[in-house]
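To assess whether ligand presence alters the predicted conformation, the chain was also submitted together with flavin mononucleotide. Input:
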Amino acid sequence: MTQNPESKAPAQPALALLQQRVSHPRLTDPGPSQAQMADLYRAAMRAPDHAWLRPWRFIDVSGDDRTRLGEHMAHSARTDDPGLTDKQYQKLLNSPLRAPLVLIAWAKISEHPKVPAIEQVLATGAAVTNLINAAHALGIGAVWRTGAPAYSPTLKQTLGLAATDHIVGFIYLGTPSGEDKPIPALNPADFVSQLPA
Ligand SMILES: Cc1cc2nc3c(=O)[nH]c(=O)nc-3n(C[C@H](O)[C@H](O)[C@H](O)COP(=O)(O)O)c2cc1C
């Protein structure tokens, strides 16, 4: 691709970062600073967004709030499924403690004649992708998780979301711990085809 001569940013470092991002499932203190989070959110806000509806929302959960989030996740799961085992309950209770910062990324769905809900969810997913790529650029570890809590009507209600809104993910952020896993060698040609005759 030809580089835009008016572009202020050097293309290659950004491209290399995008091509080399990996998730970091093991995260420790410290979490991102407020200044770093401002940069991450600025990147998120540049996601493509049909009709500029700005559907993305982030609930920032750190410190003791992570314990409360774990309680909300576990209680909601038990309300949704009374057969939830104690082991599953305990796992949910502890899950937000796996990183210093957890963002609940959700899509606030608006009625719009040209923008169905799925596009608003996609735009929020794109915002999350921008955010985790920006984290990678700053050396902050990130992993995007969902699991049953993302689809729990009870948790949505507890968090004050409308039934029509969607939790897009729980974004865990912190200092990467351990070795980066190797980047899988995928061949882009395997994912591209031509228009059928
Ligand atoms: C919408 C979405 C939901 C995900 N949910 C989970 C999850 O609940 N648990 C998990 O281990 N990985 C989940 N992942 C995958 C990880 O974020 C990550 O992409 C995966 O471990 C592969 O690592 P990589 O990003 O370094 O290729 C999810 C990814 C997406 C896009």
